[in-house]
Amino acid sequence: MSVPTTRSIPLSAVVLPPEAEALVLEVLRSGMLAQGSKVAALEAAFAAVTGVPHVVAVSSGTTALVAALQALGLQPGDEVITTPFSFVATLNAILEAGATARFADVREDFTLDPEAAEALVTERTRAVMPVHLYGLPADLGGFTAMAERHSLTVVEDAAQAHGARFGDRAVGSFGIGCFSLYGTKNITSGEGGLVTTSDDAVADRLRLLRNQGMRERYRYEIPGHNYRLSDLQAAVALPQVARLAEITARRAANAHRLTAGLAGLPGLVVPTVPPGRTHVWHQYTVRVTGAAPVGRDTFAQRLTEAGVGNGIYYPKLLHHHPCYAGHPRVGTDSTPVAARMATEVVSLPVHPALAGDDLDRVVEVVRAALT
Ligand SMILES: *Cc1c(COP(=O)(O)O)cnc(C)c1O
């Protein structure tokens, strides 16, 4: 192949609003870098955009998930049903909280299937944890109904889905919502997380767990942790929350342009959004199926060679990684749709820093790679 003459297009790029610099400087000059007024402002801002009454900022998306599960007071042997087609933190959080993970299959839209999840409910099931993968809300209507039937809590892994909506409600408002502020996510503070809940008691417990179980100085109510976010980090994220609608609109416009350009290619399935859901396009993920003229890995390699960043999220199901084999708290459930997805998916650049020319080039390179 010839050497690309144009710059390569990265799969993700961090775009920080200019206001972030002044806010970070303000924190630096204040001399108070740890959790304080900027964290409180970030929580208030995210509560306003999601319409969820309580937001608790924590140190990462993983600790958000762990804290959410700990707030439920899980006992050893309690089960959490989730998807095996996710980032490993989904599973690690369940294990860290002391619970047992069970895996149900996904739908063609990549998200956990509520009917498949319901089939795994036992008397030990305490929570169901759908993942809003790539920024697409899972079927929260189905999960809400299922949770009511079996007295379960819905813990939403919304790490990739800031501002996504199911019907007229934001993700994170259906149970306990767990968001990540990691460096590549739609809103970032480098590292960080946010937990959302409408339940006063859960919010109270989350705040205790975050800060050593301490209600007021040296009055400890429960054994806790240090899950705190710093004001320095909150200052980075805060202006992005204010611009979340704009950030999401750019991602959606980019996704729309890719979908229009990629129509009608043999064996290529572009992402679709079920009615009533708002996708926030953390990733734009296509499927290279058996009907395509080349295999998925060759396709991805051709993109890389042509300078188009791409990623495979995720190449293997969580419970198929050897380090979990034989783990007494990791289910060995069969999930054939998820297993097929793991062999077909490729994510393409969709981030807000892409120019129109970049998108045209992604389309051109994808079309060429499939012919
Ligand atoms: C990023 C991510 C997490 C973990 O978030 P961190 O901030 O990296 O700890 C959890 N679940 C999913 C689906 C993620 O994409």
Global Rg: 21 Å
- Note the total helix count: 12
Helix-strand topology string: HHEHEHEHEHEEEEEHEEHHEEEHHEH
- Identify the strand order in the major beta sheet: 1-9-8-5-4-2-3
Uncertain spans: none
Find the structural class using helix and strand composition.
Answer: alpha/beta
Global outline: globular
Write a brief structural summary.
36% of the residues lie in helices and 15% in strands. With 371 residues, it is α/β, with parallel strands linked by helices.
3D architecture notes:
- The protein is an alpha/beta fold.
- 36% of the residues lie in helices and 15% in strands.
- The protein has 12 helices and 15 strands.
- The strands form 4 sheets. It has a 7-stranded mixed β-sheet, sandwiched between helices. Strands 7-6-13 form a 3-stranded antiparallel β-sheet, with no helix packed on it. A 3-stranded antiparallel β-sheet has the order 12-14-15.
- Helix 9 runs parallel beside helix 12.
- The protein is globular and about 65 Å long.
- The chain starts with 18 loop residues before the first helix and ends with a helix.
- The model has no long low-confidence stretch (mean pLDDT 97).
- It binds pyridoxal-5'-phosphate.
- The site of pyridoxal-5'-phosphate has 14 residues, from helix 3 and helix 4.
Key terms:
3-stranded antiparallel β-sheet, 36% helix, binds pyridoxal-5'-phosphate, alpha/beta, 7-stranded mixed β-sheet, globular, 371 residues, 12 helices
